Amino acid sequence: MSIDIDTARKVAHLARIRVPESDLPKLAEQLSGILTFMEQLNEVNVDGIEPMTSVTPMRLKRRADVVTDGNYPEAVLKNAPDAREGFFAVPKVVE
């Protein structure tokens, strides 16, 4: 796929990038190269290939999903404008 100068100008406008008129032909060429590379990637058969999270095979570190108070409720409530009995106190909004 080939990108012309008008399309490159439109892409630059949509991306909110100021590109001088003299640089638009080079930008169009670079965008065309990117699309050509993407077309080449689409030709690769990836059926049965699992997505990777890293280039090296490894398991992500996990921790137990346990609800806690963070072990420092006093520090959390210290900056609250109004705290009562270990909770944030807010004005009543429903009567």
UniProtKB/TrEMBL annotation:
Originating organism: Rhodobacter capsulatus (strain ATCC BAA-309 / NBRC 16581 / SB1003)
Protein name: Aspartyl/glutamyl-tRNA(Asn/Gln) amidotransferase subunit C
Keyword vocabulary terms for this entry: ATP-binding, Ligase, Nucleotide-binding, Protein biosynthesis, Transferase
Gene Ontology MF annotations: asparaginyl-tRNA synthase (glutamine-hydrolyzing) activity; ATP binding; glutaminyl-tRNA synthase (glutamine-hydrolyzing) activity; transferase activity
Gene behind the chain: gatC
Similarity remark: Belongs to the GatC family.
UniProt keyword Repeat, yes or no: no
Coiled coil: none
EC number: 6.3.5.-
